[in-house]
Every structure is written in structure tokens, then in C-alpha cells.
Amino acid sequence: MPSLKALRVRINSVKATQKITSAMKMVAAAKLRRAQDRAIAARPYAERMERMLGALSSALPPGADAPFLLSGTGKEKVHLVVVATSDRGLCGAFNSSIVRAARQHIRRLQTENKTVLLLCVGRKGRDQLRRDMGTLIIDAIDNIGKKQVAFAEAADIAGRIATMFDAGEFDVCSVFYSRFKSAMTQIPTRQQLIPFPPPTGEAGSDSGAMGGAVYEYEPDEAEILAELLPRNLAVQIFRALLENAASEQGARMAAMDSATRNAGDMIRRLTLFYNRSRQAAITKELIEIISGAEAV
Amino acid sequence: MADKVQFELVSPERLLVSRAVDMVVIPGGEGDFGVLPGHAPLISTIRPGVIAIHDDGKIAERLFVAGGFAEVTPDRCAVLAEEATPVDKLDRAAIETELRDIKDDMAAAKDDATRAALESRQRIADAKLEALASA
């Protein structure tokens, strides 16, 4: 049985931990709000980009050689997988679930005899993937959005991906990140970036509401597409990073909340045990005194 | 038909401007064009230059954009820009230093990629100076 002093020390240390976790919870809650606001603020740009892209890709005459970024290289041999995680831990299963989803995807591709290249964004994902897939990692990017995710950072990543694509280093590119559903739920998601999947129903119905207006293009479709597609890549990555930032804070908030509660439970149990042992010790001493007195 | 056009300026990070205006003049990739209500649907690239917002027959606001895209429909004009600053916030001294830096880097640039990046920066800086001169 631990001594009373040891128990006291233990209780104090758990109390200190609880203070830290509850402070981290508060910080995560504040950061979550900011991250959410930013994700919402970035939405109009992505929406309009998507609408323009939808209009453009449907305006391209069929059979015309669309840019590779849109139609792909026609091969599916080499896959580039971008795994976006956070730089910091203590956020529950946030990083592990993204990595798990990515790992499953990679295994499946490997059984299909595809070559996989990995680009890790964020330190935690790199650390987890390095163990069993270290040879696949071509590069790792750290310190993304240390303060706030900036568009320039997303554009940098997109630039590197585009350069690699132009050099013919891969055929298909997808990104793994955690989609922010609510502060409690984040869904690890895979999104294909290259070739860019045609915009889904939403955008289609939107252009339908436009009365099927036919746009004029200045300069022509192909040239606009050539400029728009790399930009779109950056926007998609930016969106993934923003969602990730919000998810990370949400996951951290939930994790710290349960850690605080667990610490509270532990303190209660330890205090009870401490008081019991203290009383037992007193009773024992009393018994010793009384039986000593009786013996005389 | 409404006699105003809904002008929207969005950057990747947020919606910068969204209001009804009489007319906007946009520096298109193949020349400036004005957008009035009822303009034909158009998608265009934008070169570095000044977007002028007209209200009540005079220029109400002048914004410098470094590039991007414009989508025009009869009642709306959306501009996707990556960098936008009001012209009167541009700082001539800062731009001139930047231009000098670019010239220095250009001399030191080795491969074509960096040179192309520097050239586009130079074009943007030049356009900024031009915007200041015309203000």
C-alpha cells in the first residue's frame, strides 16, 4: 500500500495535469472558432471557382485534348498520395484516423501493382507513416499554418505538385484530410485532385438555373483552363488544410474534455482512498494505545 | 432589368467586396472591359491592374488586383483575385524597393523557372506603379 505522502503527491500531480488539460480545452475551443470562421470565409472563392470550372469543362468541345490536369495522363500507374495531418499531437485519434485511411488506400493500390508516392504534410503523419512506408515518402512538409493556414502555403504545395505532374512523375493525385463535420465528428476523407473529377450535381444544377447561359471566353477556353486548373489545385489544397485545421482543434477539444473528466474521476478515487488510509492509520494507532494501556 | 450590377470580389481567404454598383471596369487579359447590368455572360482572365468601381457617374473605388479571373452574368460580376489592395493603400517606396530587389535577383537567377517567377513579380510591380501614376 502506498504511503500517505505518496498518495498526496499523486493527487497533486493529477490536479496539475487536470489544470493543463482544461486549459488546453479552452484554447482549442477558441482556436476552433477561429478556424471555423476562416473555413467559412474561404468558401465563396471555392464555390465560384467550381462554378467556373464546371462551365468551362462542359464548354470544351468533346474530343478536344483537354489539359492533363483535368483529363489525366490516360495512365493510372503512379499514384501520389498527399497525407495532410497536424504538427502537434494530443488531439485524440485525429492523426491516426487520417493515417489509417491513407494506409488502407495505399495497401489497396499496392495490391493492384500500382506505384505509390507519398507526400506528407504535417509532422505527425510523417512520423506515423515513416515506420512502415518510409521508402515511399518523397518529401514531408512541416510547419503548415503554425499560426493560421495561409493561402500562400497551399499555393506552394500546389506548385510543387503541379511541377511534379508536369515532369510526369505521377498520374493520379489524391489528398487525405479530415473533413470537419462538427466539433465532435471529423471524417477522414480522400479527395482526388488530379485528374480533377467533374463537378457533381450541385454545380450542374446551378448552371441549369442560369438558363444554360453560354459564356463567352476571353481568351479562349483552353487558355483559361490552363490558368484556372493550377489555381484550382491550390484552392482544393487550401480547403483541405482549412478543414484539417478546424478538425484538429475540434478533435483536441473533445480529447481534452474527456481527459479533464478522467482526471476528475481519478482525483475523486485517490482522495477517497487517501482519507480511508488516513483513518485506518489513526484507528490502528488508537488500538495500539488502548491495548497497550489495558496490558498494564 | 435592374439598373445595378452585383459586384463581388473574392480572395481565397475571404469575400472582400459584395455590393451593387453602377459599373465596374475590369482589366481583362485581352484589354479592359466595363461591366454594366445586362452584360453578356463572360469568363475572362485578369491581368495585373486596377478594377474601377463606378457609382453615380464617377469612380467610387479603385482596387489593385495582381491577377485572377472574372465571371460575368447579366446581373452579377464575380472577380476571383489572389491579391487585392485599394490603390490609395499602395506604397510607392515599397514597390520601388521591390522592383530593385527583383532586378538584383534577376541578375543572380540561374534557371528559367526562377526567372519566370521574377518576371511575373516584376510585371505586377510595374502595374502597381502604373496604377499609382494614373491615380
List the helices and strands and how they pair.
The complex is a heterodimer of chains A (296) and B (135).
Chain A: H1 4-41, H2 43-59, H3 68-71, E1 78-84, H4 94-111, E2 115-121, H5 123-133, E3 137-141, H6 151-166, E4 172-180, E5 186-194, H7 201-209, E6 216-218, H8 221-295
Parallel strand pairs in A: 1-2, 1-4, 2-3
Antiparallel strand pairs in A: 4-5
Chain B: E1 5-10, E2 15-21, E3 23-28, E4 31-35, E5 42-46, E6 49-55, E7 58-65, E8 68-73, E9 76-81, E10 84-86, H1 92-108, H2 112-134
Parallel strand pairs in B: 1-9
Antiparallel strand pairs in B: 1-2, 3-4, 3-6, 5-8, 6-7, 7-10, 8-9
Measure the end-to-end span of chain B. 33 Å
Mean pLDDT of chain A equals 86
Helix tally of chain A? 8
Q: How would you sum up the global shape of chain B?
A: elongated
The helix content of chain A, as a percent range, equals 55-70%
Rg for CA atoms of chain A: 28 Å
Largest sheet of chain A: 5 strands, mixed
As a whole number of angstroms, the C-alpha radius of gyration of chain B is: 16 Å
Helix content of chain B: 25-40%
Structural class, judged by helices and strands of chain A? Answer: alpha/beta
* Category from helices, strands and their pairing of chain B: alpha+beta
Q: What percentage of amino acids of chain A are in beta strands?
A: 5-15%
Question: How would you explain this protein's 3D organization?
Answer:
The complex is a heterodimer of chains A (296) and B (135). Chain A is an alpha/beta fold and 296 residues long. Chain A is built from 8 helices and 6 strands, in the order αααβαβαβαββαβα. In chain A, strands 3-2-1-4-5 form a 5-stranded mixed sheet, sandwiched between helices. In chain A, helix 1 runs antiparallel to helix 8, helix 2 packs antiparallel against helix 8 and helix 4 runs parallel beside helix 5. Chain A is elongated. Chain B has 135 residues and is α+β, with helices and mostly antiparallel strands. Chain B has 2 helices and 10 strands. In chain B, the strands form 2 sheets. A 5-stranded mixed sheet of chain B has the order 2-1-9-8-5, with no helix packed on it. In chain B, a hairpin with a 2-residue loop joins strand 6 and strand 7. In chain B, helix 1 packs antiparallel against helix 2. The mean pLDDT of chain B is 86. At the A-B interface, helix 2, helix 6, strand 6 and helix 8 of A face strand 5 and strand 8 of B. Strand 6 of chain A pairs parallel with strand 5 of chain B, so a sheet runs across the interface.
